[in-house]
Amino acid sequence: MTRLVLKFGGTSMADLERIRRVARIVAAEARSGKAVAVVVSAMAGKTNELVAWTDGAGRPGPGIDLTDDEYDTVVASGEQVTAGLLALTLRNMGLKARSWLGWQIPILTDDAHGRARIEDVPGDRLGAAIDAGEIAVVPGFQGVTRDGRLTTLGRGGSDTSAVAVAAALGCRCDIYTDVDGVYTTDPRIEQKARRLDRISYEEMLEMASLGAKVLQTRSVELAMAKRVPVRVLSSFVEPDASGNLPAEAGTLICDEEEIVEKRIVSGVAMSRDEARITLLGLADRVDGPADVFTRLAEANVNVDMIVQSQSRTEGTVNLTFTTGRRDAQRAAELMRAGQAEIGFSEIRVDEDVAKVSVVGVGMRSHAGVAQTMFRALADKGIKFQAISTSEIKISVLIDAAYAELAVRALHSAYGLETV
Q1: What are the φ and ψ backbone dihedral angles of 263, each rounded to 5 degrees?
Q2: Helix (H) or strand (E) holding 355
Q3: Tell me: the pLDDT tens digits for 332-369?
Q4: Does 212 score more than 70 pLDDT?
Q5: Which residues are within 8 A (CB) of 391 and not within 5 positions of it... i.e. 6 or more apart?
Q6: 85/50 Cα distance (integer angstroms)
Q7: What per-residue confidence (pLDDT) applies to 30?
Q8: Cα(251)–Cα(53) distance, rounded to whole angstroms?
Q9: 268 pairs with which residues across the strands?
Q10: Is the dihedral of CA 141, 145, 151, 156 positive or negative?
């Protein structure tokens, strides 16, 4: 019997009518002879409400440690509600179904409450249940420590839960969302964006980390590490009168070797969640940058682009780096607090920037990718402030006002409307 994991996000589970639609999709897969497990998110907006409640409860009193374990107990309840409702709906349709909470499988994690990472998912009991014809409904986002405390995986963690369950069951993971696949860029910015039939793990990982919001980054990392095929599909589909789903569509995320014709560039991604920080007049010491980035690393501030240039003052340099917008003020405070030890004259923070990137495995074997990018931007009068590259991506930092223009220009320059 073929096993299959299905995952449905918060939009798909937003109310009882949408849960009934999800149940019809699940039923169609089960009745086609597959052994099915389903991973669900909380109803759209519910997690934000639960988080607000935990904030309203206040901080612990004197002598009580500040931890997020009870926070996890509260916010994990949203997924438990939808798991139970979907199991009830499937039973009402005459199908065997039950919910499997994170501690019942178990989905074992470390003890970093609020941002836990999955360590192991024993799949024997769950696999035996679905092979016997039971539909297993699993609340995403939650796990359990080895000493029995509930944990949550951080925002978007249900995608990671689904991939982890699929890895434990040795099967494909179909992620149903409010789009019908992975596109060459955001269709809301470029109407000529095209849906990709296949994309490699590496490309999807880069696009997810660069601003494409189809999948959570950690879920793609896990899929690549465990070699779990992932298919992205629209949840707004209905089985036909015979109970059959439409022919397989969406986008398959898979090994690069499974893609016959490799594109030079597969997509253009954009992120507005960027801030640029510049240290002016930094003492030109060999260990100067190391001092700066050690302080940031110890505070868990992620840094992306880094540019060092000569200053007008002899013996000093200017150091520019980018970080997420939410980390910008914290990073700036760290720098100001250590200004005397670091040795710089002025700090500037600019949050009115955006990062635009092109991604493609074909970059490994084709020259001229950077030239095409910079020519396309120059033709539109767009200046870049910083650059970062990897084997399969080029990113530039630009003024936020030109972000959408840059996306459209690059999409056209690489001929992505014809893929």
Answers
A1: -80, 145
A2: strand 353-359
A3: 999 999 999 999 999 999 999 999 999 998 888 788 88
A4: no
A5: 363, 364
A6: 18
A7: 95
A8: 37
A9: 358
A10: negative
